[in-house]
Structure prediction request, 197 residues.
Amino acid sequence: MSFHSSGEYFVMTGTDKKVNLYSRDLGFLTELTTLNDWSWSTRFRPKTQEVAITTNSGLISVQQLARINIFSSYRELYARRDNFTDVIIENIAVNQKLRVKCKELVKKISIFKDKLAVLQNERLLIYVAAEEGLKYSPYRKITKKFECDSMEILNSHALFSKDNRIQVFNFLGELEREWILDAKVTYLRTIGGPPKR
Prediction:
């Protein structure tokens, strides 16, 4: 087991031949790699995103953690992932920031009007904004695995796209509509429309 120099996450391996990344709150983030033999040791290279891995058979390898920027915006609101497990929401007009701790890997983020959606490995968290100030409270938790390339939150639905398929789920996790297109969907954007439609 080895902590990153920031202390926000650690890497752990063992006889199951897998190298996994966890948050400091013990939330599973992702599997980095599966080895052919069990690992003796894993260590973060100081102040980098590189992990050195050694195995029982004598193999030494270095893995680079890719930090993909995950973000969403709506008017003056900008939301981004921080430290793999948190979401920072900024109101650029009034220079306010809010940190939402999710404790697990944040895969996708979407913000629209007063709603914030955070997609994790096995669930979708939906937050709603307070009437005044930059404050979000939990609204719904949908325990379901959503495979998607893009995600958008609407007033009462969540949109997911994967390859050439667009799916619309309500806030109970039920599939309400699906479109299969001729070409791959490369971009989703919410621009508005009538509520509950």
In short: Residues 2-64 form one domain.
